[in-house]
Amino acid sequence: MRTSPSRAAGRKLISVVAVSVALVAGMTSSVAVAQAPSDQAEAAPAVAGATEAAPGTVAERLIVGYKSGAAEAKSDKAADADAAAKGKEAGERLGFERRLGSGAALVDLGEDLTKTDVADVISEYQADPQVAYVVPDRLNKPLATPNDTEYNKQWDLFESTAGMNVPGAWDSVTGSGVTVAVIDTGYVAHSDLAANIVGGYDFISDTAVANDGNGRDSNPADPGDWTVDRECSANWVGQPSSWHGTHVAGTIAAATDNGKGIAGIAYGAKVSPVRVLGKCGGYDSDIIDAITWASGGTVSGVPANTNVAKVINMSLGGSGSCSTATQSAINAAVNRGTTVVVAAGNSNANAGNFSPASCNNVISVAATNRAGSRSSYSNYGSVVDIAAPGGETRSALSNGILSTLNSGTRGPGSEKYEYYQGTSMAAPHIAGLAALLESADSALTPARIESAIKNNSRALPGTCSGGCGAGLADAAKTVRAVTGGTGGGDTEGTTFSNTTAVSIPDRGSAIESSISVTGRTGNAPSALQVGVDITHSYRGDLVLDLVAPDGSAYRLKSSSTSDSADDVKTTYTVNASGETANGTWKLRVQDVASADTGRLNSWKLTF
Fold this sequence. Notes:
Elements: E1 5-8, E2 11-14, E3 53-66, H1 76-90, E4 95-99, E5 105-108, H2 115-126, E6 131-142, H3 155-158, E7 179-184, E8 201-202, H4 207-210, H5 244-253, E9 270-275, H6 284-294, E10 311-314, E11 318-319, H7 324-335, E12 339-343, E13 354-355, E14 363-368, E15 386-389, E16 401-406, E17 415-420, H8 423-440, H9 446-455, H10 475-483, E18 495-498, E19 502-503, E20 511-517, E21 528-536, E22 542-547, E23 553-557, E24 567-574, E25 583-591, E26 598-606
Parallel strand pairs: 7-9, 7-10, 8-9, 10-12, 12-14, 14-15
Antiparallel strand pairs: 1-2, 3-5, 3-6, 4-5, 11-13, 16-17, 18-26, 19-26, 20-25, 21-24, 21-26, 22-23, 22-25
């Protein structure tokens, strides 16, 4: 972040990072100014009622349908024996539980099976010509509309045109166990947020900027960032307090289904307010320390962080490319496993000329309006990664983003809710989504989270001149891709094949055969089909692995002398929902015993 000198209240202030660059379109001042609330009534959301259920996580059972001529289709004893045999092949203990009204068999998988274990069992059933189908006995949960009184005004969450499809993600994950650091103006008390606020820190070192009578301390309370005429520059026009950080925090994690106010995107997550912005903005140095501390790094003179954030939201920015100092702090945070989300900026200009929007290792977010077009103020360009609702208050149709706020024009007053617009409002939508993904799979790296969000986005329903990244973020599709649901791409059932035969060395090194997957727009599905055609003198001596583009290996078949078919012509099912679909996939085959001959004839992937 580059700085330039300015005058403030008769003393010299080094240029601060402007909140308004990421909040209000068309403003040239360096402090946030809240947009006036819109009185336009909102349409009620089209969200499923409380009695509707949707597939959730895989349970500990399978539903197996046998072909009509099979003994297992009518005999419970035969179905039980078949389950035991299939379990032996897969190295698990299975058992017939009961017959369903449809005639299918319910098979108990036991306890503590991994995704790979379940995939092994499913592949055994799929290889049986007497089996018509085998599917997981999925756990279903009710999908209810939150009872928050202002939820019907949150078009950004649920509307089909340009909402982020958030309710569809809530049936499987809410952000529980994740802390999001909101590096901003701090936090002003609000009853719709209080339950999800954890300890943060005030990093503002200059008392004139801090406006709370002191420098750095453990209290991140927002005293207000109001200013008077000429306080920040010669042509400065005084502004009321923005309560910007509280508005951002509400979008991420406002309490939900509590009978009041709004719903937060990751309402099971916690927010750690980290204060860096005060009167006229905030210094690079304070922001760098805040990034370091929030992600678990050490800052001299500041106590260790007991609420280390897995996600950082920075709805702030200023002109100039990313500085080496800021980039270093971001790189270190990402290396600690923290995903960093930033606003692209509000100058209707190339985001590459703004910081931290132009920094590497961040998710840079552009803003869209209610019609799904780039908001008129939003920055754009090649450094933008994704778009999310930021609102646009210039017309009745294009409302802003409703969130938690305060009525005080200077110091804190009573709590309220208000519409703001800006990439400041778009960024917390993505930070909330990142928290949902982190909650779904704590092993996800920042790079994998960014990839999942981008790969599972959808095309903007409107227009975006200049570039809005991968598209409009889709929360439900992204969460499904990570948790093992569908959503791996645009076209289901697409098959990619390799028909070049390769000899399998007798008790030698593994051979690898490749398939290049292109044209996909998301991650691999939870039920990726791997069809294998191998001629081999003793099937039980083979070890088969599927290798994903990033090098992750999925075991398809282990060596087992109990498996003695001459030819391997079967289909395995792999849960590869966390893998990017496009790229080079490999089938790795190894003969682990002697006196065998074999050939991989062909193999295929069906998405």
